[in-house]
Specification:
Distance between the termini: 19 Å
Number of helices: 10
Pfam families: FCD, GntR
Order of helices and strands: HHHEEHHHHHHH
Oligomer: single chain
Strand order of the largest sheet: 1-2
InterPro entries: GntR_C, TF_FadR/GntR_C, Tscrpt_reg_HTH_GntR, WH-like_DNA-bd_sf, WH_DNA-bd_sf
Structural class: mainly alpha
Organism: Pantoea sp. BJ2
Protein name: FadR/GntR family transcriptional regulator
Largest sheet: 2 strands, antiparallel
Number of strands: 2
Keywords: DNA-binding, Plasmid, Transcription, Transcription regulation
Length: about 240
């Protein structure tokens, strides 16, 4: 039986990733095929509860990936097949179990070495920024039991401190995919166990201990892998 296609307002417009995920589900549930026309930006903005400019910027990402084609005077047309569980993001991952585990392997390789590089290269200003981000993350987490955006800001500050801008670009795409994958269950259930390790990671970076930084990063990702497998089992 076909599920009625609907668009619902996004309660917290945190990023265009959420808009693209909502559009992906909508197009899949409506049975859209390559060549199908998307609703006008005005309609999408009203349904999602965001501005037209926000929708326009999100659609630019899809256009860059070749997922849609925008024809002046004619509208916007779907160019690729979409499934209800797909997540078309920075690296265009299929949001399924096998690819998420593969993505985690890539994340381990890049992230652990990024932490080691940060321990080696971080400037005094970098360390101040990392600690500020950590303090913000801890404050929000202790207040509401969840700090996804602040957690990412903390990790992003470490990747910047590693001194290689390509690392942050690649990890940003992987982060988007993991964020979509972990939409449910609630974020706090997936984050609490690794919470204390973030302070340990900062301390290792500040002490210029590359080995410890790498090892603590692996511990955090061990918890992520465990939680990911729990989500996969729950979805079966």
């Amino acid at each position: 039986m076909q599920i009625p296609a609907e668009l619902h307002p996004i309660s917290t417009p945190r990023s265009d990733t959420l808009i693209l995920d909502a559009l992906t589900r909508y197009m899949a549930q409506s049975g859209a095929q390559p060549g199908s026309r998307l609703p006008p930006e005005r309609v999408l903005a009203e349904k999602l509860g965001v501005s037209r400019n926000t929708v326009r910027e999100a659609l630019k990402r899809w256009e860059a990936l070749g997922i849609i084609l925008r024809k002046k005077g004619s509208g916007t047309f779907l160019q690729a097949e979409v499934g209800v569980n797909d997540s078309f993001l920075s690296l265009r991952f299929k949001n399924d179990s096998a690819n998420m585990l593969h993505a985690l392997e890539v994340r381990r390789i890049i992230e652990s070495e990024s932490c080691a590089l940060a321990a080696q290269r971080a400037s005094a200003a970098d360390l101040i920024e990392i600690e500020q981000r950590l303090n913000e993350m801890e404050k929000v987490h202790l207040a509401i039991g969840s700090a996804g955006a602040e957690d990412w800001a903390f990790h992003a500050s470490i990747y910047r401190a590693a001194g290689n801008p390509l690392l942050l670009q690649m990890l940003n795409g992987i982060y988007d995919s993991f964020h979509a994958f972990f939409e449910s269950p609630p974020e706090q259930a997936l984050f609490s166990d690794s919470f204390p390790l973030h302070r340990e990671l900062f301390n290792a970076i500040r002490q210029r201990d590359c080995t410890a930084s790498r090892a603590i990063c692996h511990q955090i990702l061990d918890i992520t892998e465990r939680d990911m497998k729990d989500v996969m089992n729950a979805k079966r």
